[in-house]
Every structure is written in structure tokens, then in C-alpha cells.
Design goal:
It is a single chain. With about 575 residues, this protein is mainly α. The protein has three domains: about 300 residues, no CATH class; about 120 residues, no CATH class; about 110 residues. It is built from 24 helices and eight strands. The strands form two sheets. The chain has a six-stranded mixed beta sheet with strand order 5-4-3-6-8-7. A two-stranded antiparallel sheet has the order 1-2. Strand 4, helix 22 and strand 5 form a beta-alpha-beta unit. The longest helix is centred in the C-terminal third of the chain and has 30 residues. The radius of gyration is 26 Å and the shape is globular. The two termini are about 35 Å apart.
Length: about 575
């Protein structure tokens, strides 16, 4: 897909081809915004399987499977086999994990890392644990790897949660606690894992020491300043430059978890009936999960946030849900009845939509039936708000599959109880996820520019110019394995601007006059453009040739000279 998917995939390829595993590059520019672990994992996958789009997704897929297995193992250790199985079932079939692993972001890796660190904390502190030192080493390694995944937040979450938990359980000031956790040895292990990359990245991208707290246009202060001050401190304070992100309203950030953990969120009320007294392993785990959830949610309530930033709490919620589901009770029965009603209503709604669009034409691809609102697309799920009723004419098959899924869920949860109802809900989600996968095929022309890349590969050589930010046509850069120029207003250069200001950076951004000169020159040039913006470019070069090479999903590839006729 365009946007972050192809950008991550191409950055990893650049790393593999160049042999520079320290400094990331996008379109020839240094890219100092993100830690390297996700790029290392994708590049390693390329080395094993070759450079393919599916190979780029393997590390995320493995991480999601590993997270489900880890959550189940954590639950079995804490609560027993039944509760552990339910915990694994909850996290592996919830909407949030499915949605946020469709895109190449490292948050599922971070979630695995945090969950393992939390389990290691309890194991290291447990009196019955025969190998506390081993688990303290595991926890320290998680902190070091976390720094290479999502930087400081990967350390802040487990450390803060651990300290609060120790304070609440009155273990914070006990000598025995720190003797079992080995904090100094742990700090050395974490530094041994994380420090080499940070040091090398700093040395290769000077200046080394710049502590200004002001970020603005045209500035370049090296890696250390950008990575820590701009990306960590100023981003938390919502003062980061450039401001190429949006934030979810606080109330919705909390309420969305009813959706992210669906269908299992219907059992949230049952969690309140659990015991959180740290008198046994189960109680200590529940208390830790509660602290874990509370810290992450409060932290991001006071920070800028995207929908998926709270993913690290999914294992904690799954553990509490698994424990509640295994315990049973009236609130579990009520939750199952509520789920039957929700699934039944969803099935009826799907049937109604199918009836409404049954005779509606669906010409071309789905892009012609979407709203295209750029104001909402800075959120990770902003494209969902582009849908309107006639969009569903292109989604009849996935809608029908979703209707079957909801019907299965409604009947199964209505007629069964306990484990059978849980399995019916899980089956409903498996079928629904398959429907969503089929829907993604219909969305492909809108979300990806692969057909334009294929047309470019078959065309004569020429200078490639992309309208807007790199992300808008990133799949062309990936599938064609090309760099290009970006025709972008200064205020829309976003997170590539900093690399463009680095000493010796290639010229990537062009203004209107430079575009006109390139388009009117004798040399061939290509333009990637969203069709609604094409008239703006035609006005820049009146009378020039704008021959369409290919068009797909409301986007087009054009050239400034007639293409040779096919033999």
C-alpha cells in the first residue's frame, strides 16, 4: 500500500542494498525519525526470501503470532490453562490486533516486548521462581530491544509500570526486591543492546551536541537532537516540527477500546468482579495488568496520540478478560447475551445495506465512490471516513461474508454459553477477518499505486516527479525501485524536510517553476498525480503534453512526450 507500508518496505530495501544498517534513507535523504529494529527485521526477511511485498510483512506476522502465544503462556502461568487459553483467544481475534497489523508499523513488536518484560518482572520477583536472575536478564534485554523499536517510550512503559507496581505492593524499598531484579546488571545489558546503534547514528550524522528546544523550518541539528529532542520531548509536548500528525480526541481514545477489543469487550464489566489483591500469583498478575493499563492510558491522554498507540495494553486487557471468562458469573452471561444482540443487529444492518446497493452500478474502481477528505487521513484509520453508501456497491462480496460471520456469531452466542459461546465468537471474528481481507482487494486501487509502478517499468527512462509527499505514491517507489523528485509546497514537506536540510543532501523537492522547466524540457519526465490536482499542473505548463501512461484509483502517471507506439 501507499503511505507507511511501502515507505517502510523501501527504506529496508535501501538499507540492505547500501549496506548501511545505521542510517535510514528515503528517496536519497537521511531519515532520522525512527529506530532501526523494524527495518533490520524487514531487511533480514529480504535477505532470506528476496525483496517482495509479502516478505516485508513476515516480521509483523511472526510478531502477531508470537504475541498471541506469549499472552496465552502468560495467562496459563498466572491463572491456569483455561484462562490462559481464553487470554490468547481474546488477543488473537480482537479487531485491534487485526487492524493494526495490516500496516507495517512496529507496534505489535513493541507490544510483544512490553508484555514479555512485564511477565519477566513477575517471574523475577516470585518467591517460587527458581531462576530469578535469568528473568531479570530477559527484562533488561526487553528494555534494550525496546529502545531499538520505539525509543524512550519502550523503556518508559515497563519501567514506570514496574515502579508503580512495586510501590503499590510495598516492595519498592525492600532490599530483596532489588537483589532479585539486579538493576545495575540490567542497565548494562540494556545499554549493551541499545547504545551501539545510537552512538554510531550520532557519529555518522553530526553535529553531536545540540540541546535547543526550538524546531523550525530549514534547521538541521544532527541525529541526536532530532531523534531525542524533536521526536521524543517536543512530540510529547505537541511542539514537534514539522507537525505531520494528528491526534485522536481524548474521549474517543478511551472509548475506541470497546472496538479494538471487540468482541471480547462485552466482558469488560466482569473484570470489576475479579480480585486484585496481590496475595497469590493470579492476584499479582491482575494488579500488574491494572497498573499497566492505567499508566499507558493516562500517559497518552496527556500526549499526542494515534489510535494504535495504546496497543501495548492489549495483552493486559486480554489477561484480565481471560481470567474473568474462566471465572464465569452473571456478567459473563450478560456479556454473551449482549454480544448475540450486537452480532444480530450487525447481520441485519449488512442485509439492509446489500438490499440498498443491489441494483447500484459499480463502474471503475472504488476510488470514484469515496469522499477523499484529506483532513481525516492524518489519522491511521482516517480512510474509513471516506466511505459513503455507494461505496458498498463495490463491497458486495465482503459484505455478504461479513453478514454470514455476524449471523454465525449471533446464533452461536444465543444458543450456547461458556466455552462454546466463546468459540462461536472467535469463529465469527475469523470469518469477519476473511471478509475484511477480501474488502482490502477492492480497496487496493485506492490504497496502492502498484498499477502505476508497473506501467512505469514498461515505459522509457525519464525523470520521475511525484505530486505531494513521498508517502502519497510510496508504492510506486517500492515496486519500481526508483527515487524521484517531489513537487511539494514547503509546508507539505513533512518528515522528509529535516533530511533535505542535511549537509550534502540531494535535491528532492522542486517548486512550481522547477516543475515547469522539467516538463517543458526535451528530456522525458513522468508525473504521478492525484487526478483532482491535475488541472493545477496543466496550468503550470499551458500547451504542454500531458499524456496519460496509466490511471488507477483516482491517480495517474503522465508523461510530457508522446510514447512510442507499440510494435
Amino acid at each position: 500500500m501507499d503511505d507507511v507500508d511501502a515507505e517502510q518496505a523501501q527504506t529496508a530495501r535501501n538499507m540492505l542494498v547500501s549496506g548501511d544498517w545505521v542510517t535510514e534513507h528515503i528517496d536519497g535523504l537521511v531519515f532520522l525519525e525512527k529506530p532501526p529494529f523494524v527495518y533490520w527485521s524487514i531487511a533480514t526477511s529480504y535477505r532470506i526470501f528476496g525483496v517482495h511485498d509479502w516478505a516485508a510483512r513476515i516480521p509483523i506476522a511472526i510478531s502477531a503470532i508470537g504475541l498471541a502465544a506469549l499472552t496465552m503462556a502468560f495467562g496459563v502461568w498466572a491463572f491456569g490453562k483455561r484462562a490462559g487459553f481464553y487470554a490468547g483467544l481474546c488477543i488473537s481475534t480482537c479487531i485491534g490486533l487485526f487492524l493494526f497489523t495490516r500496516i507495517l508499523i512496529p507496534d505489535v513488536m513493541l507490544t510483544f516486548d512490553v508484555a514479555l518484560a512485564m511477565w519477566a518482572l513477575l517471574r523475577a520477583l516470585g518467591e517460587e521462581e527458581p531462576h530469578p536472575r535469568l528473568w531479570s536478564i530477559v527484562m533488561a534485554a526487553c528494555l534494550g530491544i525496546g529502545m531499538l523499536l520505539k525509543s524512550l517510550i519502550s523503556v518508559a512503559i515497563p519501567v514506570a509500570v514496574g515502579l508503580i507496581y512495586l510501590l503499590v505492593t510495598r516492595q519498592l524499598f525492600l532490599r530483596r526486591t532489588w537483589k532479585r531484579l539486579h538493576p545495575f546488571t540490567g542497565a548494562l545489558i540494556a545499554l549493551a543492546i541499545a547504545a551501539p546503534w545510537h552512538i554510531l547514528a550520532t557519529l555518522r550524522n553530526p553535529p553531536y551536541f545540540d540541546f535547543t528546544l526550538h524546531a523550525g523550518p530549514g534547521q538541521y541539528h544532527g541525529f541526536l537532537w532530532f531523534f531525542f529532542f524533536n521526536e521524543q520531548v517536543l512530540r510529547f509536548l505537541n511542539l514537534r516540527y514539522p507537525r505531520d500528525y494528528n491526534t485522536v480526541p481524548r474521549l474517543w481514545f478511551w472509548l475506541f477500546h470497546l472496538l479494538w477489543l471487540f468482541p471480547w469487550s462485552v466482558y469488560f464489566p466482569a473484570i470489576a468482579k475479579l480480585s486484585f489483591k496481590p496475595v497469590d500469583r493470579a492476584g499479582r498478575t491482575r494488579l500488574l495488568a491494572l497498573v499497566w493499563i492505567g499508566f499507558v492510558m493516562v500517559f497518552f491522554t496527556f500526549s499526542t496520540t494515534q489510535e494504535y498507540y495504546s496497543m501495548p495494553i492489549y495483552p493486559a486487557l486480554a489477561l484480565l478478560l481471560g481470567s474473568a471468562m474462566a471465572t464465569g458469573g452473571e456478567w459473563i452471561r450478560r456479556g454473551t447475551r449482549a454480544l448475540a444482540v450486537i452480532a444480530g443487529c450487525a447481520a441485519i444492518a449488512v442485509v439492509a445495506i446489500l438490499i440498498y446497493v443491489r441494483g447500484m452500478p459499480a463502474p471503475g474502481d472504488i476510488s470514484s465512490a469515496l469522499i477523499h477528505d484529506p483532513k481525516v487521513n492524518s489519522l491511521s484509520l482516517g480512510h474509513m471516513l471516506d466511505l459513503r453508501m455507494k461505496s458498498f456497491a463495490y463491497l458486495r462480496l465482503p459484505l455478504a461474508l461479513a453478514g454470514v460471520a455476524f449471523l454465525v456469531g449471533a446464533i452461536g452466542t444465543m444458543r450456547a454459553a461458556g466455552q462454546r459461546a466463546f468459540m462461536a465468537a472467535a469463529l465469527m471474528m475469523v470469518l469477519f477477518f476473511h471478509a475484511a481481507r477480501v474488502a482490502m482487494v477492492a480497496f487496493d486501487p485506492f490504497l496502492s499505486s502498484r498499477p502505476l509502478a508497473e506501467a512505469l517499468l514498461k515505459s522509457p527512462e525519464g525523470t520521475l516527479i511525484a505530486q505531494g509527499h513521498y508517502y502519497e505514491f510510496s508504492s510506486v517507489f517500492f515496486y519500481a525501485n526508483r527515487t524521484g523528485l517531489l513537487s511539494t509546497p514547503y509546508e507539505r514537506r513533512l518528515n522528509l524536510e529535516y533530511g533535505a536540510n542535511a549537509p550534502g543532501a540531494p535535491k528532492v523537492f522542486i517548486d512550481d517553476s522547477e516543475f515547469r522547466n522539467l516538463w517543458l524540457a526535451p528530456a522525458r519526465a513522468y508525473l504521478l498525480v492525484n487526478l483532482p490536482q491535475l488541472p493545477q499542473y496543466e496550468a503550470l505548463a499551458p500547451g504542454a503534453v500531458f499524456q496519460t501512461v496509466a490511471a488507477s484509483g483516482g491517480k495517474a502517471l503522465l508523461t510530457n512526450h508522446a510514447l512510442p507506439s507499440a510494435p
